[in-house]
Amino acid sequence: MNEALRRKAAIVGIGATEFSANSGRSEQRLAAEAVLAALEDAGLTPDDVDGIINSDFDATNQIDVINTVGLRNIGAYATIPHGGGSPCGTVAQAAMMVASGACRSVVAYRSLNERSGHRYGSSEAVPTFPWVYGLHAPYGLIVPAEWTAMHARRRMIEFGDTREQWAEIPVTFRANANRNPRAMMHKKALSRQDYLDAPILAEPLCRYDYCLETDGAVAYVVTAAERAGALRSVPVYIHTAVQSAAFPIWYQTNWYRDSLTTGSEMVALGEALWKKSGLRPGNIDVAQIYDHFAPLVLTSLEDLGFCRKGEAGAFVGEGRISSSGELPLNTAGGLLSEGYIHGWNLILEGVRQVRGTSTSQVKDVEFSLVTSCWGAPTSAVILSR
Amino acid sequence: MTQQMTALPRPLPQIDRDHEEWWAGLRRHELLAQECRRCTQRIFPPQSLCPYCHSPEHGWHRLAGGGKVYSWVTVRRPSHPWFADKVPYPVVLVEMDEGFRFIGSIDCAPEVLREGLRVEAGFEDINAEVTLLRFRVVRTPG
Ligand SMILES: [Zn+2]
User: Fold this and answer.
1) What digits encode the pLDDT tens for the residues A28-50?
2) What positions of A carry a catalytic annotation?
3) What is the pTM of this model?
4) Are B132 and A153 in contact (CB < 8 Å)?
5) Residue A177: CB atoms within 10 Å
6) Closest CA to A10 of A239, A214, A210
7) How far does B65 lie from chain A, in Å, by closest CA?
8) Fewest Cβ atoms nearer than 10 Å: which of A231, A323, A342, B129?
């Protein structure tokens, strides 16, 4: 979305199921529960909704949500692709749908039984892999952690990154999760020593570098800015939402282009974000950075311009990213410690920070940043009061 | 289900229309980069059209086989049953002297690996259709 759409739409409702290892319910039911919760939060009814959005990885068809929630007035729908790169792109899409006048209120959802059902971190029970995957799966790089370890190693080679530096990410996010009763890791402490002692799974990564596997669903509701003020909730304006792909780009396995430690789509995303928002990294009060793997949080911070290339290992030290630091990150615990709703739960926490309802609330939040997956066509949104 | 899982064979590539010539190169023990006949740009991985001039006509540039380890992963917990008795195993990303990178296995222990280690392309015939890359560490004489 361009400058003309700045603050033309607002997130007016958020909803989520519990995050667990076994929901005991279908993904379709979880999606409906999250959508109903988001509508309740906004003070809207199913009849108010005329647009619906989801992500390409979602097994819950929009038809299932229409039929369970009873959405009788859907006149526009979209599915945003690229898995973990899609979440903030759905916000951009929703903003365009309401700001253009095509829709009055749009609901977006993500639902998955990622722990009790199909686990993204397990190998596909298939004998052959399609092109690109076929270039690495036969050698034993099968799941995202094994792909990402190649990028993480390269950070060590180029920048001298250490596991002591990487520990700052999971340990800080876990402390945030420990304050968040919704978080899967709410009651589990994580110390630096726990991290350093953890068995290495795909060297140089250990289990605490990996995001969680979660059953659950989240949803949010977007409406045009001029309607938002009349609703029940405190409106959270979509200041700017952007998407970016790059050329060339490879399905999270970007080993064939110039750099393994710079994501050209994330760099382009940052450039678009700052240009279209009229803001700079220093304007951001709190950020939810997509944390499927801890070292990629560092690469995202560099690519977005929060620090210079190669310096994020030092940047995240000295408490800078803690909830009372200069740039608090992933204040609900993130995908590493709150839950893995494929990046969508980060949007909800970005909204809470603007509302003032986070369990690790940052003071006087004016601009709250949320980003999506590094290494795929990706997206970001700046939310504001 | 568990029995099926443990019986899974080694994961193999699907060899599709746009990439069969590249895989045919590996079967001949040749490591190839795609070369556009019109604009002479070389690319890897191959594409169905040249992304620079959109010509569908391409040939293949055979790489000499020498390169250096650019990055590597040592898998210590297997994610696929076929690899369960192979851990820990290293997988390397090699930058060839001509500038293209390839994933492959390598004939050394993980402890030997370091950035810049000289290697050469080797080939492991799996079946009639598939040959995979298996790099060899270049042993310096003496
Ligand atoms: Zn060409």
Assistant:
1) 999 999 999 999 999 999 999 99
2) 290, 340
3) 0.97
4) no
5) 31
6) A239
7) 17
8) B129
